[in-house]
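Hi support team,

I submitted a single chain yesterday and got back a structure, but I'm not sure I'm reading the token output correctly. Could someone confirm the output below corresponds to the sequence I sent? I've pasted both exactly as they appear in my results page.

Thanks,
R.
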Amino acid sequence: MKQLLMLVFFIFSIYAKSQNYVLRDSTLIKYYNLTNEAENKIINNDLIGANSLYKSAYREFKYPHAKDLHNALKIALKVKDIETAYDYYRSLKCLGKEFDEDFLKENFKNPEPFKQQLCKNVIDLKYKKSLDSLFDIDQYYRKLSKGNYTSYRKELTKSDSIASINLLKLIKKKGFPNEYNIGLSMKNDVYFHNFYYIIWHQLASNNISSQKVNFSNEIVKALNDGKIRPDIAGFLLDLNNNTYDYSYFKIYQFNSNDGKSDCCYVNKDFLPGNRNESSLKKIQQVNDKRKLLGLSSTEDEIRKSIFFLNNKEYIFSNNVLEGFNFRDPKDAEQFKNLMIKLNDTAH
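Hi R., thanks for writing in. Yes, this is the structure output for that exact sequence:
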């Protein structure tokens, strides 16, 4: 009887944990539905429709992610909605984005009539400094190793432990950080914060330094507080739990030892006619999980990623391209046989 009760408790615990990985905030659900549809409009060249959807999204949620502001600014400028574009520009400036020196002059010939609003967010420089210090700890031996992590296994295990445990303490004390309280990482093109790497390196499958902290609860809470994007949340949840719940279709690049690369490939199942019962089931499972986080379908995601390859001015996801390295070229060729090269098919 005791064993039966333990089994029931174990199953319930797994079910309860999976149920927590859900975006429940109705405002954010509306926001992501609108921004996902706006991105679909972009890749279909309906820029007026995208501009309208972004406006609707920002009426729903007052703290839009920098990625969405970035795309909305590009669109508003293209459709000559200059006053709206200036609002997005000011919002990004308030988050700490650095624009090219001539950006304002080239895009806003006469900004004086536009309403000058004070920044609503306050950057917590002390919090940012603490996070930057933890990121330095996370990166120190990785940089020193030059990619040979096994030679610094002991040091990485210790530094990863220090960085992750202290990051968890900071989050519990001060809340999950995002661009509205720590600003933007200036050198990152996809608005991926440096402290995310500390969470990344707590991946459950890490064979260099074992996981000390699983950040899943903090990620899901941040998701429902609007402090982390769904694409990054899904990416980090998969890493922290050694799952593949939030992505099916990816673009692959094959790198060789001589420095050459061969891009870009996708799974053959990208073409609906190639899908079998097993792949259809898996794609549906991934799409169901993605929907729970506020994400678009994995088919929509891959279409946006393909579009991005030739339209780098927009940002749709933090993880567009995945690289593979094979020592034996024959192994790479066998893997490619399971895929379609993008310039070999109408996509």
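A quick pointer for reading it: Residues 1-19 have pLDDT under 50 and may be disordered. Let us know if anything else looks off.

Best,
Support desk
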